[in-house]
Amino acid sequence: MPGHHIVRPEATEDTVGQLADVFKLMGDATRLRIILSCIEGPISVGDIAARLDSSPSLVSHHLRLLKAARLLRAERRGKQMFYSAMDAHIACVIDDMVAHVGEPTESEETD
Amino acid sequence: MPGHHIVRPEATEDTVGQLADVFKLMGDATRLRIILSCIEGPISVGDIAARLDSSPSLVSHHLRLLKAARLLRAERRGKQMFYSAMDAHIACVIDDMVAHVGEPTESEETD
DNA sequence: TAAACATATGAACATGTATTCATATGTTGG
DNA sequence: CCAACATATGAATACATGTTCATATGTTTA
């Protein structure tokens, strides 16, 4: 079962674009904070905006992109819109990345 | 310290910028292909350029960014420079992301 | 040393994109 | 229906950034 943790470039050759698109979406601090807020659980646009101290308009713009990329899902409750993470993979990705950036510089004086 | 798979925004509040920076680097198809090539093992700049069918100059520009972000490491062999992945976290991140984009659309007719 | 090769670097350009503002759409309650 | 609220959308702008070209740095060999 070759599903350990090895990335096979041949198999992803066509997927690279897809991957890059999603990574690009996560490559913005505002969007990443939005994602993190939605990972915690369903949250309204207004609450996200308040939490990030930014305008609902900006948040909505980003939410559209994140929803289109299937990173988030939207559900309506009354006149509010609640967004939450689409699946657990995103949390895994971020978790692994946290482990990466959290690692001490392997050799700091090699530079 | 619960290292399951849960991302805590409070703890990463200051790290979000770091995370976004790395994600942004991976958010470019050319750079992602470079990373994938380096994950396979140490590879020279020329070989990467040939593999991606792009100029050594462009590859070198990207390699500098990736090295600065500690995604890749550089080692000199003769007059060539070999780059390889810094640690295994990157492969994990990409692997998780492949799982995400590879997932069938949960509800395709909801749209 | 000089030439040939490999990589790195800097400037310039063209493109993409995050943010803001104004406005539209949609929803609830009187 | 109208008003108030919540979210979405479109245009405009300011900024970042990927790519190319020319050139520099560094390394090996004749």
Describe this structure in words.
The structure is a homodimer of 111-residue chains. Chain A is α+β, with helices and mostly antiparallel strands. Helix content of chain A is 56%, strand content 13%. Chain A is built from 6 helices and 3 strands. In chain A, strands 1-3-2 form a 3-stranded antiparallel sheet. In chain A, strand 2 and strand 3 (80-85) form a beta hairpin. The longest helix of chain A is centred in the last third of the chain and has 14 residues, at 89-102. Chains A and B meet through helix 2, helix 3 and helix 6 of A and helix 2, helix 3 and helix 6 of B. Chain A binds a DNA duplex (30 and 30 nucleotides) through helix 5.
Short summary of the structure?
Two copies of one chain form a homodimer. Chain A has six helices and three strands; from the N terminus they run H-H-H-E-H-H-E-E-H.
Looking at the structure, what is the overall shape of chain A?
A: globular
Number of helices of chain A: 6
Count of DSSP strands of chain A:
3
Quaternary state reads: homodimer
Mean pLDDT rating of chain A: 86
Return the structural class of chain A.
Answer: alpha+beta
Radius of gyration of chain A equals: 17 Å
Distance between the termini of chain A: 39 Å
Major pleated sheet of chain A = 3 strands, antiparallel
Helix content of chain A: 55-70%
Unreliable residue runs of chain A: 1-6, 8-12, 107-111
Q: Most extensive interface: pair and counts?
A: A-B, 49 and 49 residues
**SSE arrangement of chain A, N to C:** HHHEHHEEH
Beta fraction of chain A: 5-15%
Widest beta sheet: strand line-up of chain A: 1-3-2
